[in-house]
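User: Here's a chain of 146 residues. Predict its fold as tokens.
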Amino acid sequence: MSDAAPPLRGKVFLHDQLVRFSHCDPAGIVYYPAFLDLAHATKEDWFTQALGYSHFDLIRERGIGTPTVNLQCDFLRTVEMGDTLRFEMRMVKVGTSSLQYELLGKVGEIECLRILQTVVFMHLAHRRAVPIPADLRPRIEAYLPA
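Assistant: Prediction complete.
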């Protein structure tokens, strides 16, 4: 019998992004809608890097999109041009056709942003929810808490 404790959490996807001039307002801080673009880039890269299947291919080859159906954001601290914003992405819930995940945005150890987002897998031609693809489900579920 092993004495090692089981992990408290599942996988966490880490995604670093340089805050650029184009993300900022004239004061040099991130303009709040830009955070959503950065968060979306994190989701796209999670598909490619963590799930091994690109978001682009999901749309183009399978005709499945992942529109947002619920979004909550807490802005805790400013983020400035030149900062590296690290997103930590964790699954909260995985349903039949939807995912809810949390994105924590940090600069260094300082938490600056918290996003809770729900997306649904949708057949683009029919505009109806579809089950999460069977080949992606176990890879997604690996990001649920242990």
